[in-house]
Amino acid sequence: MAEEITPELAELVLDAQPFSRLVRARVAVFEPGRAVLEVEVRDELLQQNGFLHGGVLSYAADNALTFAGGTVLGASVLTSGFSIEYLRPGRGSLLSARAHVLESTRRRAVCRCDLVMVDDGSERIVAAAQGTIALVG
Amino acid sequence: MAEEITPELAELVLDAQPFSRLVRARVAVFEPGRAVLEVEVRDELLQQNGFLHGGVLSYAADNALTFAGGTVLGASVLTSGFSIEYLRPGRGSLLSARAHVLESTRRRAVCRCDLVMVDDGSERIVAAAQGTIALVG
Amino acid sequence: MAEEITPELAELVLDAQPFSRLVRARVAVFEPGRAVLEVEVRDELLQQNGFLHGGVLSYAADNALTFAGGTVLGASVLTSGFSIEYLRPGRGSLLSARAHVLESTRRRAVCRCDLVMVDDGSERIVAAAQGTIALVG
Amino acid sequence: MAEEITPELAELVLDAQPFSRLVRARVAVFEPGRAVLEVEVRDELLQQNGFLHGGVLSYAADNALTFAGGTVLGASVLTSGFSIEYLRPGRGSLLSARAHVLESTRRRAVCRCDLVMVDDGSERIVAAAQGTIALVG
Fold it and tell me: What interface predicted TM-score (ipTM) does this complex get?
């Protein structure tokens, strides 16, 4: 990412990730301290019981955490690690991964992400993530 | 999963997950206390710098942990939550997600997973995961 | 904990934990969806560089998460697991572990906890935790 | 810690932590890639049901992970973050927190810790932790 990151630039970064294109994630919000990634649910993203696969949730959490960290740390960041707690099956037509920076230093940001399933306007948190984003190098 | 799970059955379960087919994961090992999932690296699975996307690592960790838990808890299991620590960029031609059950009770199993990148026979751990798998219902 | 838990009862539960008495933790807030534990910093709780020991932070996070879960799940709860990210050394005269329930089902609650160091009225988040609290039995 | 850390030096470091003295932890093993901390169970360390308090387990996990990381990273290390999964109540007369380095780079080590309760020679894993230890500065 470049030092000054705009939502358009964030979308370009996401689009430069082949795996994000495979999942078809998009940047919905990208502003200081906050990033939201969205994924429309389609058959390819499900698990054997018809719910959104946990791997899609963890992918989205990971990426949204990194993008949120990027809004304050800028440029070159990576996820050191994160944890995710699953609470409910992922039902709905849209996954909204809403991440924010809880607190940051010059080199690291602790971020949290709510994994929200949206369906016909109703919303429900189905999982929650937290992780540390670090400046590279 | 059925009560008595064979490697063949595990492969069928994985194949019944559309997202696992999208990623093209396969079951390499499935035996009491241990499960290994493998994913061949291809362009679609990369991030913007040419490394395996973290989301593929977290997908594989999540699923391998669940499968490992399934080897001892049988039938209906899900991942309550897990954490993953990234240590190095994912370089190589094959991702091998090697999970094992550390300890279990009748209803829960604590499992760990080494995320190993394989390239020309050499291997390197690039990330590590740990989580709790629980019996459903 | 009893089904209907008042702040007074929560304080009694905390006081019935010998380790919490050793640390000298107290319940500062206990209301639906939220629990705050406080620990006054004293020499016994430090590490070798004069900061609050990480173990005190993880103790407080663990307990505050459990108490927060208890505000919605009532009675018999335990922490299934949690993760904690450290951001800064723990400096200050008071640790305030502020936990809330992000989302819950009948049997489980995903909770988060901000670990805040207070000093002369100024506050700073030094660590962050997240975990799952479950009904026992 | 000094660059070349001996078990004796590790014990001195632990003893320089007032909170570790309060808990009465000791270094049982300290060798390249591995560190074991032990805590004898006594009334002061229990929770309200007579089991070892989760906070003692998380303290021991945190510290053992850091010490294990210190065996390979040397000198100045700290825990970036860790996660812990609880599987059983902590029953027994001795807690043995057995940590090892799974993999490390020059600046970071991913470590795991088995939390084992020992009683009359029998042993049982009651919790498991994993975290990242980083070089300071």
Answer: 0.94
Q: What CATH number does the domain containing A59 carry?
A: 3.10.129.10
**Chain A neighbors of D80, CB-CB under 8 A:** 80-81, 132
Specify the higher pLDDT residue, C8 or D116: D116
Residue pairs spanning A and B at CB distance below 8 A: 115
B13 in any annotated domain: yes
Q: Over the stretch C40-61, which tens digit does the pLDDT of each residue have? A: 999 999 999 999 999 999 999 9
Q: Does some domain include residue B1? A: no
Mean pLDDT of chain C, nearest integer: 94
Q: Which residues of D touch C (CB under 8 A)?
A: 13, 16-23, 43-48, 53-56, 58-63, 66, 78-86
- Residue B121 CA: distances (Å) to CA of B92, B95, B118, B124, D35: 10, 12, 6, 10, 31
Residue C7: its pLDDT value, please?
84
Residue with token string 């990971």: A62
Q: Is B2 a domain residue?
A: no
Q: Report how many Cβ contacts below 8 Å link chain B to chain C.
A: 9
Q: D124 with D116: CB under 8 angstroms?
A: yes
D17 is in which domain, residue-wise? 7-135
Residue B116 inside a domain? The answer is yes
